[in-house]
C-alpha cells in the first residue's frame, strides 16, 4: 500500500483552480480549492515525477484517502471526468435536462449516474475489501485544522459528520463493486464520543472503517475515529490502528436498490475471516433484530409508559404547575416549548449527493447538528460538548429544489453531580418556590460521573438531549412531509463557582403538555440506551 499523501488547504484570492489539483466532492458541496503542500503536486519518491491527486493510480487503486474531499474525488473522477467519454457529465444542468427528458417519456429516474444495472452477480467479500480511511492532519497542517475548528477551539463536529457519511458511502460502494446499485443511507444508528479533544491542533485524526455486517440488501458500516499525538504511520491498515487512540465510533446502515426497478437489490455477502470479525458480525446481527423489535414494542404512540415512567410523568406535571406560578423564573430552568429553535433553508444543487437529485445526507447531518448546538448552547448558557448522535432515520429523502424546515427542542436533561450533593438553581426572589424545589421531580440520573479525567462526564454538569425534526415542502404543494428526526446529546460542564450557579451550570427542561412529557420519557429511554452502549464499548476495547 502506498504511504498516505496529506493534502494542504489553500484559498488563494481570486485564484483559478487547476483542473489537475481541484478536488470536487461527490456530495457536490461548495467546492474549496485543495492543493498539496507548497502549492504544488507531491513527487513520487521513485522517479521524482509529480503525483496527480486525481489519477486512477493514486486514488482509485487503493482503499484510502487523505481528506474527505480526496475521498470524494474518486467519485467525481469516475462519475464526471471518466463519464465525459460517454458523452455526458454529472453536472446539475445535465442531470436536470435528463430528468425532464425522462419525465416527458413518462419515466421517473432516481439517479443520474446510477441508472442501469451492470450486473446482478453476488460474491463473497471480506472486511479488508471494503476497508477505507481518511486522514485529517490537524497537527501537521494548521490550515487543515482551520476548516474543522469551532469557536471554542475544539473540533467542529458538524464538519466531521460530512466526512463520516462520505467515507461510509465510499465503503458501501467498495463492498458492492463491481455491481453498481443505487445505495442510500437508511439510518445512522449511533455516533458516540469516547474522549474529549480539547485542542485539535495537538492531534492528527484518522477516520477508518469497513462493512461489518450484510443482509440481503442492507449493510452495516462501522467507522472509528482515532487521534494521534504523533506522526502519521507510513501505512494505514485495520491491523495497525490502535484502540488506545480511539476517541469516537460511528455506525451507519445502508440499503441497496435496483436503479431500474426501484426495488431492493441483493448485495455481495460479507465473509468474516477471524473470531473478532465473526463477533462483530453477530453483534451487528443482534442489533438489527433488536432495532426491529424495539420499533414495535417501545413505540409510545402505541404502548403506554411503564409504571415507573408514569410516576415520572406525574412528577413532571406537578413541577410544571409549580413553575408556572413563579413570576421571576430562574434562567437555567425552562419550559420545553421555550427551548425551541427553528431554521429554514432552500436546498441548492451544490449540496446534492452522487445520485444528483437528492441532498447529501452528511450535509443534512451538519445542518441539523449546528441547529441542535445552538439550541443546547442557548439553553445552557455555555459551550456544550458533543456526546453522541443517538439515532437518525431518513424517512424520506430531501430533493434538490425544496424547502427544508428544521425544528430543534431540548427534550431531556439529566444532572450529574458529586454524590451526596444537590444541584441548585439560580437564586429566586419569588416565595412560591425555593432553590431546590424544582429539582424534586428529577429522576435518578442514568449516567454517573466518570473517574477518568479525559471522559466527557468527568465533571459535574448537565446532559442535554436535543431533538431536531425535519420536514420538506415542494413548491408544487402547500403541504410538507416529515423527512427525519435527528437526536443529539450534549454535555454542559458546571465550570463556575457557587456565585455563578446557572451561568453556566445545571440546566433543567420542564415539559408541560402530555406530548412533551412523552418526548421526555423517550429521551430518557434513549439516554439509557446510550449509557449501555458506552458501557459495552468500554468493556470491548477501552477498559
From TrEMBL:
One of its GO terms (biological process) is acyl-CoA metabolic process. It comes from the Eukaryota. Residues 38-70 are annotated as: Disordered. Residues 38-54 have a biased composition (Polar residues). PROSITE patterns: HOTDOG_ACOT. This is ZYBA0S04-08042g1_1. Keywords: Hydrolase, Repeat, Transit peptide. The lineage of its organism: Eukaryota, Fungi, Dikarya, Ascomycota, Saccharomycotina. It comes from Zygosaccharomyces bailii (strain CLIB 213 / ATCC 58445 / CBS 680 / BCRC 21525 / NBRC 1098 / NCYC 1416 / NRRL Y-2227). Residues 134-260, 337-471 form the HotDog ACOT-type domain. Belongs to the acyl coenzyme A hydrolase family.
Amino acid at each position: 500500500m502506498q504511504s498516505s499523501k496529506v493534502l494542504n488547504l489553500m484559498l488563494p484570492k481570486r485564484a483559478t483552480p487547476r483542473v489537475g489539483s481541484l478536488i470536487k466532492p461527490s456530495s457536490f458541496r461548495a467546492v474549496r480549492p485543495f492543493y498539496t503542500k507548497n502549492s504544488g503536486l507531491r513527487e513520487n519518491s521513485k522517479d521524482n515525477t509529480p503525483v496527480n491527486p486525481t489519477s486512477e493510480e493514486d486514488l482509485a487503486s487503493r482503499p484510502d484517502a487523505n481528506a474527505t474531499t480526496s475521498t470524494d474525488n474518486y467519485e467525481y473522477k469516475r462519475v464526471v471526468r471518466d463519464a465525459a467519454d460517454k458523452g455526458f457529465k454529472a453536472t446539475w444542468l445535465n442531470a436536470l435536462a435528463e430528468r425532464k427528458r425522462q419525465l416527458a417519456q413518462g419515466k421517473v429516474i432516481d439517479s443520474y449516474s446510477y441508472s442501469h444495472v451492470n450486473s446482478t452477480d453476488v460474491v463473497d467479500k471480506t472486511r479488508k475489501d471494503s476497508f477505507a480511511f481518511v486522514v485529517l492532519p490537524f497537527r501537521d497542517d494548521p490550515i487543515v485544522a482551520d476548516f474543522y475548528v469551532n469557536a471554542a477551539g475544539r473540533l467542529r463536529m458538524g464538519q466531521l459528520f460530512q466526512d463520516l457519511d462520505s467515507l461510509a458511502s465510499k465503503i458501501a460502494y467498495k463492498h458492492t463493486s463491481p455491481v453498481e446499485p443505487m445505495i442510500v443511507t437508511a439510518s445512522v444508528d449511533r455516533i458516540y464520543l469516547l474522549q474529549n479533544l480539547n485542542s485539535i491542533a495537538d492531534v492528527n485524526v484518522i477516520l477508518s472503517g469497513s462493512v461489518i455486517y450484510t443482509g440481503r440488501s442492507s449493510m452495516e458500516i462501522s467507522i472509528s475515529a482515532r487521534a494521534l499525538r504523533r506522526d502519521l504511520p507510513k501505512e494505514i491498515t485495520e491491523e495497525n490502528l490502535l484502540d488506545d487512540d480511539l476517541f469516537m465510533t460511528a455506525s451507519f446502515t445502508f440499503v441497496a436498490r435496483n436503479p431500474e426497478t426501484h426495488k431492493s437489490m441483493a448485495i455481495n455477502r460479507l465473509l468474516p475471516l477471524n473470531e473478532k470479525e465473526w463477533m462483530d458480525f453477530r453483534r451487528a446481527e443482534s442489533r438489527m433484530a433488536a432495532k426491529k423489535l424495539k420499533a414495535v414494542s417501545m413505540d409510545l404512540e402505541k404502548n403506554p409508559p411503564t409504571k415507573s415512567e408514569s410516576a415520572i410523568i406525574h412528577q413532571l406535571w406537578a413541577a410544571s404547575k409549580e413553575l408556572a406560578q413563579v413570576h421571576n423564573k430562574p434562567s437555567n430552568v425552562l419550559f420545553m416549548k421555550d427551548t425551541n429553535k427553528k431554521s429554514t433553508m432552500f436546498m441548492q444543487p451544490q449540496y446534492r449527493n452522487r445520485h444528483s437529485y437528492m441532498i447529501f445526507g452528511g450535509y443534512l447531518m451538519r445542518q441539523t447538528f449546528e441547529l441542535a448546538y445552538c439550541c443546547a448552547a442557548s439553553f445552557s448558557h455555555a459551550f456544550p460538548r458533543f456526546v453522541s448522535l443517538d439515532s437518525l432515520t431518513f424517512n424520506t429523502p430531501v430533493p434538490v429544489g425544496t424547502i427544508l424546515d428544521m425544528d430543534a427542542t431540548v427534550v431531556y436533561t439529566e444532572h450529574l453531580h458529586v454524590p451526596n450533593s444537590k444541584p441548585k438553581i439560580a437564586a429566586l426572589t419569588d416565595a412560591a418556590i425555593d432553590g431546590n424545589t424544582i429539582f424534586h421531580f428529577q429522576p435518578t440520573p442514568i449516567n454517573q460521573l466518570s473517574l477518568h479525567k479525559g471522559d466527557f462526564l468527568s465533571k459535574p454538569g448537565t446532559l442535554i438531549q436535543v431533538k431536531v425534526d425535519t420536514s420538506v415542502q415542494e413548491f408544487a404543494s402547500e403541504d410538507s412531509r416529515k423527512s427525519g428526526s435527528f437526536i443529539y446529546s450534549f454535555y454542559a460542564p458546571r465550570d463556575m463557582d457557587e456565585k455563578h450557579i446557572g451561568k453556566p451550570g445545571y440546566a433543567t427542561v420542564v415539559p408541560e403538555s402530555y406530548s412533551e412529557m412523552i418526548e421526555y420519557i423517550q429521551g430518557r429511554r434513549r439516554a439509557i440506551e446510550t449509557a449501555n452502549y458506552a458501557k459495552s464499548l468500554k468493556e470491548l476495547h477501552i477498559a
